[in-house]
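Re: the 434-residue chain
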Amino acid sequence: MNKSDQHWQELVNSIGNFLAPSMAKDHPNLPVVKAEGCYYYGTDGKEYLDFTSGIAVENVGHRHPKVVQAIKDSADHLVHGPSGVIIYESILKLAQELQEIMPPKLDNFFFANSGTEAIEGGLKLAKHVTKRPYVISFTGNFHGRSIGSLSVSTSKSKYRKYQQPSWLTYQLPYALPEYLPEGQDPEVFFAEKLEKEAESLFKHQVDPEEVACMILEPIMGEGGYIIPPKTWLQKVREICDRHGILLIFDEVQTGFGRTGDWFAAQTFGVTPDIMAIAKGIAAGMPLSATVASKELMDQWPLGSHGTTFGGNPIACAAARASLSIMKEEKLLNNAKTMGDYALTKLSGLKDKYEIVHEVRGIGLMLGIELRDPETGEPDGEAVMKALNGCLDEGVLFYLCGNAGEVIRMIPPLTINKEQIDQGIDVLDKVLAQM
């Protein structure tokens, strides 16, 4: 081991001395010195094909030259806002450009830094506008780890342990495939099931006139990459309209081309009243937004919500560059084409290996669920073995699901056929060894 490798190893080994384990003890703690396109470059000199996109963030690829240049140009003029105290071109131009790609009437923006902040903003806006106290979320969804967002997050109980998140929330079941009786049409079954469940909730636990909003992920992310039927989402919209309840979509992970459309709302043809966006918005710079109609936002007066760093000028410049790249390089179309190709290849693994229980996805948001062939139980241990085996072969995947039983495949939207072949061939090899 040379001095450089030894130095890095010493740093990695000492993580626990200066970084909180809750921050740094994730998978796989890969020491890197650079990222570019669809690749990380490790301190070990190896090239790693990245199928994580920094957890659905680097949609235009790592360090795209146009994004890097936009960051440099912005830093030459302005590093910090704060928006409102001063005003600057990048935040105004970004808002205008976002209006062009958002679903109808979602045309007003409160910029923040993270997905969790965007969720907090959405919840506060809904309560302020409706003057109602309660929120309904859906079991298995993840919306963040701050106390407000945690009160509607139920993907894993460990996130809520000792936190006593707000009791002003109720949960309805998500449209999970395991609930579907054999032979039933999911488009019919889940819509009818939700109607009955909502009726029971309103009859026995909370009057709908006291519910400010329903919040959900249009595609369940951290909870397992579950894709609900379109009619189920339409039923959620219908129930909200019936009772004057605002609908919030958490599009933090599904946004900015991940599904093959700008947003999952467009993929399913269901428009929420409020949307939370983040992750893929600014190519790795910290930026998010709570989005609603001007009509709703105008009821949220000065001082009712605020931010110091939200809408940072450099982050807004990076976001503008990222939107331009996605249009110029036709990345929405690439997400659909490459996603379909990857899903077909992954389906071949399901036919080949008993441990692969299910493969599912839309666009380049793909999940591979592993279960013990003998017990039928979700197999998080097998997922970790697969992830480590793929890493040894130079491919980085990530995990999700309540028991960590799903391999997440979320590459940059710039991915090509050869890179998908490389990644899935490595996964095939590792599963064969297992």
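DSSP finds 16 helices and 15 strands in the chain.
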